[in-house]
User: Fold CBS domain-containing protein from Candidatus Cryosericum hinesii.
Amino acid sequence: MSLEQSVEALRYLGLFSNLDASSIMSTTVHALRPEDRVAAARILMREKSISGVPIVDADFRLVGLISVSKIIEALADGRLADSVDSVMVRDVISLHAHDTFETILSCFQRFKFGRFPVVEEDGKLVGMITDTDVLSAIIRSFYSVYVHDQRRTITLGSFSALSKEFENSADFVYDISCTGLENAGEGSARLKAFLQTKGFGESVVRRASVCAYEAEMNVCIHAGGQGSLRAIARNGEIIVRVEDEGPGIENIDLAMKEGWSTAADAIRELGFGAGMGLPNIRRFSDHLVIMSGKDKPTKVEMIFLESKE
Ligand SMILES: Nc1ncnc2c1ncn2[C@@H]1O[C@H](COP(=O)(O)OP(=O)(O)OP(=O)(O)O)[C@@H](O)[C@H]1O
Ligand SMILES: [Mg+2]
Assistant:
């Protein structure tokens, strides 16, 4: 599938709806001041492998941008010792922190630049978005969030982001069955012991069992307590899949947000329901696919690579 088709597919599936500029921008910004020399911009671009440097005033408000082509011009004219101010572009096309993914995409399509500064209402520079940031966001959406209705089938055909391995067998199988919180977490504790016997390193085992625990607890707390926890552990790779029969997650984008939870007060009093389970799974896994939908089963598949330690 080409990049354009992927973008169309994701747009169709509504998966961009919760991505805004602030969630995809990089916040490590290398900026210069107008009085800095053009030579400094050239050095910064080479050292940081970037193709444009935002220029800010004393309050970090965006006042200009200097691109590689401006550097090349300045080089040809022998103006490397001049101030950035004399060669920078002043009417910079920038994005706002709350701009939607659609706006960002159309900005890239329309202006054909490789990067855009992101500013807040008062003009303060808060980040940069490059075409690579956009591509990463697309790939993350493509692989991590799915809806479970016919739109998916129409758009993605038989494409499945889930591993095929589980169709035949699994190395570890545990049937989740908990009433209330009784037995909750037992499956992930067993998985941990199993992975240790397989000779996986301590750190990858910890990541896999913590994430398995979060997914298992979600089955116990949000999905009636019945489900399965399976794993395939071979060749330095651990694939964990946790499944249940519903009621499903209506909006996966929302569920992935830190602090978002539908847990009842009684559950919160027991110390659950901080809305941190799924965000932690995303953080600690190397690859994550969630398939769910309203009144649908939920499948959470996570991959952990020993080589990523
Ligand atoms: N297997 C599931 N079935 C149905 N809904 C789920 C499932 N897993 C997660 N959810 C929904 O996603 C929300 C977020 O899940 P997450 O694990 O991030 O937080 P939480 O379980 O509410 O709190 P915490 O994990 O911090 O105790 C849940 O509140 C619930 O609405
Ligand atoms: Mg949870």
